[in-house]
Amino acid sequence: MPERPLDRCREFLKDTIRQQIDFSQTDQQMGVALPPLEKPFPADARRLDLPPFGRSKGIPTVDLATAIGGRQSCRSFSPEPLTLVELSFLLWATQGVRERVAPGAVLRTVPSAGNRHALETYIAAQRVSGLEPGFYRYLPLEHQLLDLFREEQMPTKLTDATLGQAFVGRAAAVFIWTTIPYRMEWRYGLAAHKVIALDAGHVCQNLYLACEAIGAGTCAVAAYHQQLMDRLVQVDGQDEFVVYLALVGKV
Q: Using CA atoms, how far apart are residues 167 and 187, in angstroms rounded to an integer?
């Protein structure tokens, strides 16, 4: 039987209890070339430039203390769509690149263990003005959307994949984070699975705070059917699999 993502995490927990992980045997220490910071895509793939954002572009400023004090999970949304500028801002806030510091190394808007950034962001866009409903992947190095595919009955399939949580299917957009674990394993071996989970928490908290700036709500979701969700975003469930998601809508 093939090893499942949750089996890998359980093995990590058991190993850390039994013994210390030998970091001298990681691929990084063995001289293996580092994996790419972004999942590759075909050169002829359809990509959409995301619009610039800022106070003059429709993103208001918000006091940090106000954003922290106001953040909460929201499961009810208005029919109003997100604008493409707002989506651009949320994507930048959660996985955006601030600076390229070296080949294979960038500074982003969120921390990551060893600067490895093992997450990919998929968007199930249902009500985003200027964007055809469908699935997209965020390309942080280019600040673009990769146009992936259209999905019939998307609200129903999102609800089914999240164990009947109908509010997921009613969101304007659903952020779905996958991990490519080897991107972190290259440096940390089995310890990668712990820090991947920590990284996902950093990303989602930034989404909560960024939503406060645009009058939107979000709700983190960790209860989902692993195989259904992996199949929905068309990842293999082994070398890449869903680890977290959050829905967004105007309130």
A: 38
Spell out the residues 6+ positions from residue 198 whose beta carbon is closer than 8 angstroms to its own: 113
Q: Residue 182 has which token pair?
A: 């080897």
CB distance 111 to 203 below 8 Å: no
CATH number assigned to the domain with residue range 5-35+47-250, chosen from the 4 options 3.40.109.10, 3.40.50.1100, 3.40.50.2300, 1.10.10.10: 3.40.109.10
Query: pLDDT (tens digit, 9 = 90+) per residue, 52-98?
Result: 998 768 898 889 999 999 999 999 999 999 999 999 999 999 999 99
Residue 244 has phi, psi (to 5 degrees) of -170, 155
Identify whether the C-beta of residue 194 lies closer than 8 Å to the C-beta of residue 128. Answer: no
Q: Which helix (H) or strand (E) holds 235?
A: none
Query: What pTM, to 2 d.p., does this model score?
Result: 0.90
3-state SS string over 57-82? HCCCCCCHHHHHHHCCECCCCCCCCE
